[in-house]
Amino acid sequence: MPSSCTTRSRAKRLASSTMTGAFMEYEKGRLVAKLRVARDRKRKETGKKVGGRKSHAELWPELVAEARRLRRVKGKAGRLSYREISARPKESGYCNERGQPFNPQSVRAMIEGPQPRQRRPSDAD
Question: 65 and 29, same structural domain?
Answer without folding.
Answer: no
